Amino acid sequence: MAQNNRQKSGGGGDTSFGPAHPTGRRGPLGRRPASSLAAKPKNNDPKNANHARRRIYKGGWVGYHSNIMIVYRPARIDDLDPISHFTDWWISGRGKARNVPGTVNDCFITKKQHTKYIEKYVTMLAFRGVFIVGWAVKANNDTLIHLLVAGPHRGKGIGKAMVLILQPKFVRSKSDQSTGNPIGFYEKLGFTKMRSEKGKARFNFDSKRSLKASNIDVFVQGHD
Description:
Layout: E1 6-8, E2 14-19, H1 46-57, E3 61-65, E4 68-74, H2 80-91, H3 111-120, E5 122-128, E6 131-138, E7 143-149, H4 158-166, E8 170-174, H5 183-188, E9 191-198, E10 203-204, E11 209-210, E12 215-221
Helix pairs in contact: 2-3
């Protein structure tokens, strides 16, 4: 994978990878714990906190982005609730309703879909402390279909690191995202746009109406 691979990150300092430290060395930053095991330890016992981090970080890699330690690992089914909260907050309008910078209302992903992503596809998570700050999904046809980084952590190389770890051959990405067209991001990682196509229209549960279908760009790695 990307272990022990050091390179310059696009947007913030050096990015380096190595085996995950079993306890973590930085405190949590974020809104929700990565799993129920990451709840605040009783009586502030540091042994309980370290045990929670060991369970969360097991099987992962460490990346340092602008001196911030980020742990990357594949998602497990006990990550379902925090993953769902993470995507609801950043891309399904929950954060936007509170005027949080960087949040949008572009996509809604059900828990059933998340379960499929975890059990059938490859879902990669990025943690700072015990909190999810990045999420990516690669389908069985070697296509990256989702990539999301929490607003305060964008531009630090976390999204790039997740792509390097997953190593997809193809990418399907909305070109009309509220945060802008990500074509430049993928081109810098060596992807070339193959074609554009129409995605499926989605139903907005808040406004009770259907939204227009998105424009989808399809990229392939390493083609001119």
